[in-house]
Please model this.
Amino acid sequence: MTASIKELDIKIIGKSIAGIVCHQYHHLGDIVVILDDKKNAKAIKLASLSGNVELHTIDNESIERIQLTGNGRVYLFHTKSKIYLVNDQNKIVEDSSKWHDHYFDELSNGFYRQDALEHWYDIEGFKMQETVFLKDDVLTCLNTKKSKQSISFKNQPIYISANKQLIQVGKVVLDLELKVVKYFGEKITGLGNVNISFGENDVLQEVKLGLEAKAFINEFTHEPFVYGDDIIVRHEGGFQYGQTRVEIFHSNKNAYALQGSSNNFLSFNGKPLQIDVNKYVHFNNSELVQASDGNTNFFFDLIKNRPFQLPQNEDINITELDNKYVRIGTEKMFNVSGPRHRFVVSEKTGQVFSLDEGSIEPEKLEDPEILKQYFGFATIDGQRKLFSKKHGKVLHFGVNALEVSEIKSSTSEKLINAIDTNGNKLVLDLRSGFDDISLATTGGDKIFEVYGAALNIGNKTLHHVFVETLGGNTKRVIDINQKELPCFTLPKNLKQISDQEILSVFAGNFISGIEEDKTVIDGKEFVSAYFESFSGKHFPVILEKASGQPIHLEGVGHRNELAMSWVEYSLSNTFYLGRNRMVGVRTLTEDLKETELLFSIQQLSSWLPFYDHYLPILKQVIEVKDAMNASWNYHLFELKESAKEKEYIAVEKKAPHRILADKKTGSYHPRIVKGKNKSVRSPEELNTLQRFFYTDTGDLVEVE
Model:
């Protein structure tokens, strides 16, 4: 093969063949493509070189032009009717009947073809991802079938604008014709990140000038974007108002708003408008934004492209219009301002809103945080006042016709904290409905604050409140299930001694507070509360949750004592006397002395029957820890009142929790044990011989 190539070199190089002098050649199977020094080319049948030279043809058509591609393996043969893509073995790869368009880049000898879907493919048949690209020092644009070569292109990044109309290579920006694009004759050094389209060919592209300056041009026409002689340098953003979009641009001096197209600057009386993009209102199918012409502020109608005016005041521009509305029935009410006054208008009718049968035109309406479907606040002569949305009237309360300026959130749905127009607290009573709202009072005293969660005690629903009394402001608990909102008290019929008529000093005392937590003992629920005694001092008290009654226990001498708090030891440990769960409480006597009692949870009583008598009043339980008593585990229950030495009764620990007793005159009496260190023997522990010697062994007797 080497010899034949050398022979071919000697035979044709420098020779005149088919009318051209061969400068170089390419061997393609059975043909030779020869080129002169001006790149003119001929395809000659290899076998004809020895005699009469014969030109290569395709489909009996002569080849009019030959182009060599950059990869050196594929050639373009042009006949009169077609172009053929031929490989280095003279095999036709494809012909132009399959191409929608094609481009041969003579700078890089690159070949590209396009299909019917306008997709471009390179010489190898791979689909092109970009129609503008840079290879080495050649920039190619397939859209315009242009190429440009420059040594300055080498190793430079390439950027293309959003609509592929502008190309940045290094510090140069070109159009699709690969011509340099300039801004008023100044070189553009790069493409910015902002590209704003108003549709079709109306697109603004940010460009860089020099090192830091920026401007805008039309991406398609390359015209500079200016307002008069004011150069636009920055885009603030696009803002959607209903179906209308506004783009905000800035020069170094002014802001400009555009709507719909790049030449539609929002203006009034020939002055461009400055738009407050955060003040937008949709009002009766109009898109309104607050604008300024440099002298005055007003709302501008983006639909009608003019300042917004109300139908009944067409000569007054609206300077303020709240974007929050107050709904009254099916209508939306907007707060508006003109140059001289403030008022409220209906979006539906455009009429000025009024209260009290048209006698009052509020300056402003607001919704409260709660109950806004029923009430609103109207500013009248600069003062905020509560009004009924249903009746359209300002509300007045009490004999002094108080007006409310604020509704505070509340834990109650029936009683609402509020503040009157003088700044004083009060409570609104909504129990009769929203049409019959009133001032909350208890016993003729004003309730000025409700707090805490509702508590269900017995058949009552209770709320904590502050009450304004002659003695000053004080805490009370009221029952909202009764019309008069009475204060919750200790029972008014509480007796000093249960079977006598003398009332307890605690009877009718005010409850000042109730804890939310509850104590559950053997299925019964109790809550802790506080009451105000006749001395003015506050004491704790235990209430039974199911009845709301205090635990009022008979004490020594039968005078009742009020249970104040639990003895924790008796709650965390279980003590029984017969079937009675015995629990300790700290108590308050009629003369306000504090002591302790044991009582039966089952009977809520401190006196427990024992045969024909009662067991003595008990104070507390003493744990006995003595090795001698291992065969009989018992508790000592201390008597509340005893002689100088403490006295106890012994009760077995295990069921049925019998008591050690002696039989006297045909009846059992509890054996009194003096001193807790003395061992107590169980009668069941002694044998027959011991019983003979112990004459008073006693008996273990059940308690009913």
Remarks:
- Helices lie at 2-12, 568-572, 688-693.
